[in-house]
Amino acid sequence: MKMKQNIIKSFYLFLLLLATQISAQNISNTKTDLPESVFGEWTTVLDKNRFTEFTLHKHFIESYWQAYVYNKDFEVIDNLYSFTATNDNNDTKEFKIKVISQDTLSVDRGEGFKTFFRQKTPRKSSYTTLKDCPEFLKKTWFTTNGNNKIEFSLTDDEFIYNGKKYEIEQVVNYTDSKQFRFTVKDGLDYKMFYFKDWYTDGYIQIGFHGQYGDLYKANKAYPNNRTENVDAYLITIVPKELQGNWLKTDGSNLWSHTLYYNFAVLDKTK
Fold first, then answer.
1. Which residue positions does the secretion signal occupy (predicted)?
2. Burial (Cβ within 10 Å: 0-12, 13-18, ≥19) of residue 133
3. Quick one: the chain helix, strand, coil %, rounded to 5?
4. Which position has the higher pLDDT, 58 or 235?
5. What are the backbone dihedrals phi and psi of residue 269, each rounded to the nearest 5 degrees, phi first?
6. I need a surface site. Which of 34, 56, 157, 161 has the fewest CB within 10 A?
């Protein structure tokens, strides 16, 4: 009888030990960071002419041209990592990453799972430095919304946004599309900017916050719209106050004429 009780007692102790081990294993496996092996550049082909790509960084995940910083709420079950991350607009998204192999991931960024493959750099690009970027980038850039505000200032070794200096984490040169991607940080405040050299000298388009981008000018005196001959605009005899559309004063309020910096358009209808 006593032997039977000892066997039962030992069995219950075994079950208790097993439950403790399982619980400890679950605790250790449900709170973790992403493995180092997943960090880098990833891409997938949507169809013959389209693809999408993103960066997995040790502190953030890129989602549609924005850096979302991890909230450290990782949960993992069978190599499936679930977590949330927040961008610099305080928008929070849920992400899921399934590790298939060292070079293959299944990723859900809010639109369902897609298979991504590792790449050394973003497509048709190379890594560079701010110092090695073209000189046209390294200027003070003013807004073109009428405020003439200095929003960006770039030199050989400084990246300043809204009056604040950011440390440059990475610069990517997209050689085929004349774009430069800047990943900058202030502590764990990460931002991604896309400088697009699509226009005449003195103008540039800068995209951030996941937006296509706004037009910026390199001189406060430049017009807020792209102008091919900026020098002619600056020396025009037509005062800036007179440039624009003008209406008739006969009470009709119909269009009369338009004055540009280098020519005028008149209404010659009767």
1. 1-24
2. middle
3. 15, 45, 40
4. 58
5. -75, 155
6. 157
